[in-house]
């Protein structure tokens, strides 16, 4: 009798949905991003292009994504910072498989909720903002920021989960995670100078659609690559440490 | 079957387990004894792949635990009553564990009823007492109906009824042919449960003995005679160590009760009382571990 990765995924989904913190985080995420989108759309009478209109309504993600850091960190530290890790690793001794399933489930949840929010944002822009030619759902200028927002949400969540696995404490991982995505990029941008500006662009800054939020501007391919590299590095470091450490 | 071979675990400043080897066969309850800090938990965590040994190996059913594909169907473990998330309900906790090993949700209901947590299954674990935590841990260990069980201090925090229940459960599991390793720092908890004992002290193996042998080891003969000095001299000549007791009886070490009777008969001494006195398990255990207690209250 063998049990495949699907069993571990199902188990991780049960773990995620049976903690109150998951639902609090989800509620705050929906509320913050949704409220900002509605407010932005309602106060923006017109925009020259569809992508400009969408860019405005997605602003709420700049703050909402902070919740994804919390969600990703908690998915891992809910185990490592309580005794639960012992039970989980006795049940699933293949540790990288456990972390992969855990990350996939929480990142999947982040992707799903973000996709719903993005759809709501686009709908708000379509109905409340006057744009010449309207906001078409098949316009690349609409689809690209929408897709990037979902991709960014997944990467931020994976980065947070990786930090949780590396640091094992909720407070530590949250501190480092928030410093990396929301404190350091604008702080370095404000500091000015060549080095600080370079560093700001090398940070996994939160992004609103195609744009870096408050950080030194970078194009979206660069932003995606930087965030992807951070997420991959943090996750791999977390997996390696999880394999090697004593529980 | 659990096999531990030359297991050593060193931390930066101290040695937790040093060159410990023993085998736990199926069909009996093996008690794993030792004072606090003697290395029982470290050994069990090495067996379960939670802790990496510095040297030596530990296998379950012939393979390292971390290579088991569906471990819960083969091995059940209670590592720590706090091995749960306080914000989850007992039912959700067990369901997540069952799903990870492809076990049906009906097993959760089975074990919840078996350990007597039915009434609180849908309450958050945060409010559970230590004893309820132990029952939850035992439920998790039994989820996969495993052939090997490792339970670290399962009766710690249980009420007398719970202790009796665990004893019965362990006996039943062993009778069914399963391998049962159960740790404790109290000998009295083992008295009616274990068939065999593995004793640790300061990380070293002190004994790997059948319960009956350990009891026999500290046994002596108590004999009473109106002519005690004559009998003592005769026993001494027969090679026994004789010590007079405050109540006038003699304590004889090194001869069986039958041999003592024979010596008395040959010496023509009347015997008024003759009995084998087994040491209490507690005394036998203290004799074994007396010098190997890591944490001891200072002498005044």
TrEMBL record, chain A:
It comes from Geodermatophilus saharensis. The chain crosses the membrane at residues 21-41, 61-92, 104-126, 146-167, 174-199, 219-242. This is ABC-2 family transporter protein. Keywords: Membrane, Transmembrane, Transmembrane helix.
TrEMBL record, chain B:
Keywords: ATP-binding, Nucleotide-binding, Transport. PROSITE patterns: ABC_TRANSPORTER_2. Gene3D superfamilies: P-loop containing nucleotide triphosphate hydrolases. InterPro entries: AAA+_ATPase, ABC_transporter-like_ATP-bd, P-loop_NTPase. Residues 2-227 form the ABC transporter domain. The keyword Transport applies. One of its GO terms (molecular function) is ATP hydrolysis activity. Pfam families: ABC_tran (PF00005). PANTHER family: ABC TRANSPORTER, ATP-BINDING PROTEIN (PTHR43335:SF4). Belongs to the ABC transporter superfamily. This is ABC-2 type transport system ATP-binding protein. It comes from Geodermatophilus saharensis.
